[in-house]
Design a protein that fits this description.
Length: 268
């Protein structure tokens, strides 16, 4: 016998998850609408808003944005590798290794990032006796800064893995490094993805600091255009909008994955 006009009951967990997704998309649409409205209000308020200052230099500034993405991706990737090594060293039972790793993290987390860029660009050639170009100096300095923060993210991820996993690895004959590489780190990275995305957003914005040593990334490209055209309001409004769009999309992705990971843990 077939029943018509009836529906299957929906579990409370699924209903809650669907509601969270709807609210998420509603929030995203709301934020985008507010930003567009603010941009439109600025354009109406400012008499003679020179859009041609943006359109005529759009290609040049996009080349700078490409450099920004290159710096962010390269320094973040290298920083993650260095951060994993530092995090493993901080969890080591070897005292001197643990102290060096902690000193590295504390030093780079407690000095201005601009100071690290100056150190690399001006001090490294004095120490090594060889000159260093602006782009390489930017990558090295950003990698050092980012790795110090990522080391703490990775260490938190390592501590989120149950200690029994490490003990089980020891029982199978694994060394400390083997247990970290094969068992602990892969599990920790999965838990760290939302935090890693948030750190990448921070790294993306930090790349604007390297303009001080002459790297023509997005902010520096916009500054060069402004020095020629003297359209500060138009150009830097556009710069802020581009940074917002890129960072907002990445932050939204991190929040979406974090909620998905939470639902997976709860078995929904």
């Amino acid at each position: 016998m077939t029943l018509t006009g009836s529906t299957l009951p929906v579990s409370p967990a699924k209903a809650s998850g669907d509601r969270a997704v709807r609210l998420q998309w509603l929030d995203i649409c709301g934020v985008i609408a507010v930003v567009l409205a603010c941009g439109y209000a600025i354009a109406l308020t400012l008499q003679g808003f020179a859009f041609d200052a943006i359109t005529s230099n759009f290609r040049y500034m996009m080349l700078g944005l490409r450099t920004t993405w290159e710096l962010a991706i390269l320094s973040f990737g290298l920083g993650l590798l260095v951060g994993i090594v530092i995090a493993v060293a901080r969890e080591s039972e070897i005292g001197p290794l643990r102290w060096v790793a902690k000193g590295y993290v504390e030093l780079l987390r407690n000095v201005p990032q601009l100071m690290v860029i100056f150190w690399v660009y001006f001090l490294l050639p004095v120490v090594t006796g060889h000159s260093i170009n602006e782009y390489l100096a930017a990558v090295v300095a950003l990698t050092a800064c980012i790795s110090a923060y990522l080391a703490e993210v990775v260490r938190a991820g390592i501590n989120s893995v149950p200690r029994t996993q490490l003990e089980a690895a020891y029982s199978t004959g694994c060394t400390y490094l083997q247990a970290m590489r094969l068992i602990v780190i892969p599990q920790a990275l999965r838990n760290m993805i939302p935090s890693l995305v948030n750190q990448f957003v921070s790294a993306f914005k930090t790349t604007s600091l390297v303009y001080i040593i002459g790297v023509i990334e997005f902010f520096r490209a916009a500054t060069i255009v402004n020095e020629r055209d003297f359209k500060s309001m138009e150009i830097f409004t556009f710069v802020g909008f581009v940074y917002f769009v890129n960072c907002f999309c990445m932050s939204t992705l991190a929040r979406w994955y974090e909620r998905r990971l939470q639902r997976k843990r709860e078995g929904r």
